Amino acid sequence: MITRILLISLVLLSSLAWARVEFEITPFSAQDFRDAQRLAELCAQDATSFWCLQQGAELTLLTTKGYDAVFNAAGEIVALFAKGLQRGQDFGGAYYLDGHVNLIPMRAVLPGLALLINEEYLVPEQPTGAWQRLDENTYRGVFSYRLGDYLVEREVRVYANRIAMDLSLTVRYQGEEPREAPVQLAVAVPGIAREAAPVIKIGQAGSFWANPLPQPIVNPDYISFQSNDHNTGYALILRPALGLAGELAALSLPPGRIAMTRTLPPEAEAARFELQFYGGPNELIRFHQEGLLALPGLFRPNLMGQLSLGIVWVLEAIHQVVGGWGLSIIVLTLLFRVLVWPLITVQTRSMVGMQQLQPKLQALQKKYKDNREKLTQETMKLYQEAGVNPAAGCLPIFLQMPIFIILWRIFTNFEFGEGFLWIPDLGLPDPFFILPILYVGVMVGQAYIMAKDNPQSFRMQLMISLVFVFFIFAFPAGVTLYWVVSMLVQVGQHYLIQRSVAAQAAAT
Fold it and tell me: What's the angle, vertex CA 397, arms to CA 396 and CA 398, rounded to 5?
């Protein structure tokens, strides 16, 4: 059985692609989407989708750890594939326009971050632009195009370790005739994924409105789409750059669009937008790291969320002292193990005591095999005489589970932005499999120490450990590091308690 599990593990591992997701740009086209045929069928029906006017356009794919985005030649976002399960997810080219992780609806009448003039979307004319890599963590795209009598100059900055991107946009009037009326300019988002009724929120000065009326709210903190109001799904958030909110207004535009707007007066020749755009998971830890959590009404953490923020605060405080996220995880793990040491001691003593009672329990089962009531009475009497409580081993596990779930959620969503020892990125799986191998070694050692006198129990625990190998190879390295350190401490604690109990038994 063990040999079979090992063979299955090797087959699965040989089929996995552990290539690190590169922060890079590559040429792209509408035909590169896996459901390009569906797009062709949509446009054959005289659909109003913006795609029907741009099917042959040159596109650019930009891949990051937080999302993969497709831009057109004007710097508008025509597709945005969120990575909700885990940062660094590699789609492997499997991009579906009509998929649930594409946050820019395929059927929308305008792309993401499009400029509207008096609430009307015009297809960019004469677009020119290029992407430039500023450093290992930043790309800048500079674009220029015309919308009728207006020249639009757009700059987009995207980052390797952030989901939010920065947008600068300047609109200049170059018509021959003077304008007699003000013009409303708007940077708009057309919807979110395939959600028919997403939640729209606008925050301003500590207050917020959910699904507001279509009227401008000046000096906004943000405007957002969220998949729902339950702290799950995805979010698209537009917010002004620091100090520039007073020049803008947030507006919910029917049918189902959001925008940041400003007015171009008749006497003015140009207007400028400075915005930040977030498109990704509607998730506590990512909002915390992106600086979005303080926005009024955007996210309301529950009790587990508050505990998560407390642990993140401790982790960040440790990081300020030790100066590395890998060491910070190790120190946090040790602190947690110190806190649960008394509980684990109770659990371990109970397990060791139960192991020592196995011969006597088997004798009772053989003696009273035809008398269940008497067997129960004698078993409870044996527990009392030995001072063992079978339920004592369960309580520590139940108490640890919420903390474990919290730590899992934190490490899965936390952007470490650095590696540790041989690990290039703590937020991605270990590409050299060293941590998973260490994990397996510790699991085998733990199974041996806990059940060395019971071969059947040892084999069972070993099989469970090997089955779990299928999952551990895909875990972020930060999660695996936490588990390895935590289990090493637990193995050492179990060994010490086992020796102590054995010494006490020998003394009596």
Answer: 90
Q: Please give the average per-residue pLDDT across 295-311, as a whole number.
A: 89
DSSP state of 45: T
Give every CB contact of residue 175 below 8 A, 6+ residues apart in sequence: 148, 149, 150
d(CA 236, CA 73): 22
- Residue 88: exposure state from Cβ atoms within 10 A (0-12, 13-18, ≥19): middle
Q: Note the pLDDT tens digit of each residue in 455-484.
A: 666 666 667 666 666 677 777 788 888 888
Domains of the chain plus CATH, in order, are: 2-300 (2.70.98), 314-507 (no CATH)
Summary mean pLDDT of the chain: 82
User: Rounded CA gap, 485 and 374, in Å?
Assistant: 45
- Cα separation, 508 vs 503, in Å, equals 9
The Cα 159–Cα 424 span in angstroms is 18
Buried b / exposed e across 288-297, counting CB within 10 Å, b at 16+? bbbebbebeb
The residue-averaged pLDDT of 356-379 equals 70
What pLDDT, on the 0 to 100 scale, is given for residue 436? 84
Residue 450: what pLDDT?
A: 63
More confident residue, 19 or 199: 199
Residues 429, 435, 441, 446: is their CA dihedral positive or negative?
negative
Q: What is the DSSP secondary-structure string of 225-275?
A: EES-SSS-SEEEEEEEPTT-GGG-EEEEETTTEEEEEEEE-TT-SEEEEEE
- Distances in whole angstroms, Cα of residue 96 to Cα of each of 18, 83, 99, 197: 22, 13, 5, 21
What is the rounded CA–CA span in Å between residue 89 and residue 284? 19
* Exposure on the CB side of residue 442, measured as CA atoms within 13 A: 22
**H/E element, 280:** strand 270-281
* Higher-pLDDT residue of 221, 381: 221
114, 76 Cβ separation under 8 angstroms: yes
